[in-house]
Write a structure and sequence with these properties.
Structural class: mainly beta
Radius of gyration: 31 Å
Distance between the termini: 50 Å
Number of domains: 2
Number of helices: 1
Largest sheet: 8 strands, antiparallel, barrel
Oligomer: single chain
Order of helices and strands: HEEEEEEEEEEEEEEEE
Number of strands: 16
Strand order of the largest sheet: 1-10-11-12-13-14-15-16
Helix content: under 10%
Shape: rod-shaped
Length: about 300
């Protein structure tokens, strides 16, 4: 249902345009979205609304590298003369099935039978010099040398190789808490605080209502509202393909900022982003944020 929020919002706004100044128009230059009251531009840094998240639900784990994981190597200890059984645990889990290997390095003393084992994809180590197991979830492995491979003079270091998809970052999560928005005409780029970039476009927009007259009686009164549809796509820091749809909203606020006969009134545009975050094969969340307002003009109250 969340995926429909953007379109429902747009439909509601279209209905509100009946009898109002403006109405839906094709996307255009940011410099003429509200010609009667000045420039409205949605470029800026958007942060969460009070007591809310910028994105309410999203995948926050970072898969390392490609779908096959990232390759790691580490020491498996040493083969001790006369000892046949060994065990250990890898530093990163889970292990990608079929990638785990155990190899004996060049001997420290005289040569012996080589150890070269590989995971068969089902947790069993097969190959030369012995047998063993690997638990891909915990990273625990075992090794049992063949009888012919444990002469008293065989002292070798074991090398462990594998690929893993361990999440990284603080607590294994990535927080999305800011959007840096750049808009130029119809072109839109959204960059989150993790460096992920989502590119798209501004679509139809509407101007609702009329600007209030600037008089001493006005203090914090709202006027026109400009709503612009948007869509953007990109890949999040968690490696998820993301599509965002929704709208930017700007409302004209006329406020008396000093009192007296010659009090000064400021006209500002509050700016917000509302929409839906949809991951391919992942989660769906709501987007709610606001940017610092733009001061449009100041005038002496009459």
């Amino acid at each position: 249902m969340k995926a429909l929020i953007g379109s429902i919002t747009f439909g509601a706004v279209v209905a509100l345009t009946a009898g109002c100044e403006g109405g839906w128009q094709a996307g255009g230059s940011a410099q003429n979205w509200n010609e009667s009251s000045g420039e409205v531009n949605f470029t800026g840094r958007y942060k969460p609304l009070p007591n809310k998240y910028l994105v309410s639900d999203y995948s926050s784990y970072i898969p390392l590298g490609t779908a096959g994981g990232v390759a790691f190597t580490q020491s498996g200890g040493s083969i001790i003369p006369g000892q046949a059984a060994y065990a250990g645990i890898v530093d990163h889990q889970p292990v990608v099935p079929g990638t785990f290997t155990l190899k004996a390095l060049a001997p420290k003393t005289v040569t012996g039978v080589a150890v070269n084992l590989k995971d068969d994809g089902k947790g069993v180590l097969t190959g030369t010099g012995g047998t063993g197991t690997i638990d891909v979830n915990t990273g625990a492995w075992t090794l049992l040398l063949n009888a012919a491979n444990t002469p008293p003079d065989l002292t070798r270091d074991l090398a462990v190789g594998y690929s893993a998809t361990e999440p990284t970052g603080p607590g294994g999560t990535v927080i999305v808490y800011t959007f840096d928005v750049q808009s130029l005409g119809n072109t839109l780029e959204i960059r989150d605080n993790n460096g992920s970039v989502y590119k798209g476009a501004l679509g139809a927009y509407a101007t609702l209502g009329t600007a209030p007259a600037a008089t001493n009686s006005l203090s914090g009164q709202g006027g026109q509202t400009v709503v612009a549809q948007f869509e953007a796509k990109g890949v999040s820091a968690a490696g998820m393909n993301v599509e965002m749809t929704g709208n930017f909203q700007a409302q004209l606020i006329v406020q008396t900022i000093s009192t007296g006969t010659n009090g000064v009134q400021a006209q500002t545009w509050s700016r917000a982003i509302h929409g839906t975050w949809v991951e391919t094969g992942g989660k769906t969340g709501d987007i709610d944020g606001a940017a610092d307002p733009i001061v449009m003009q100041g005038a002496a109250a009459q």
